[in-house]
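Lab notebook, bench 4. The sequencing result for the construct came back, and we need a structural model before the next group meeting so we can plan mutations. Quick request posted to the team channel:

Model the 3D structure of this chain.
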Amino acid sequence: MPTYPAKHPPGMEPAHPGDILREGVIPSLELTVSEAARQLGVSLSELESVLHAHSPVSPEMAVRLGKFCSNGADFWLRLQAAYDLWHAERKLEAELRNIPAHHAVA
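Done. Here's the predicted structure in token form:
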């Protein structure tokens, strides 16, 4: 299965995977959210929680989405990781200034 890197411009907030599903994938497949949830084998509320960025894409959901979209679970996990890291870096920005960076000697 080919891999599809999750890339975004530096400094710009990455899209939550749910945004991509809600605005691109599901409409392009001409499916209702209910039908997408049924095909994914998840509850409507579980899918809606991801679509509205209230829940992250879990590894289990990533496996389902990878099959559903034929682009692999790793794509969806990388999208979620990019989103999570971007937010964590901003949340901890002040605290990170006080943490020293060590470089191991080989």
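The chain has one domain: 17-96.
Will bring this to the meeting.
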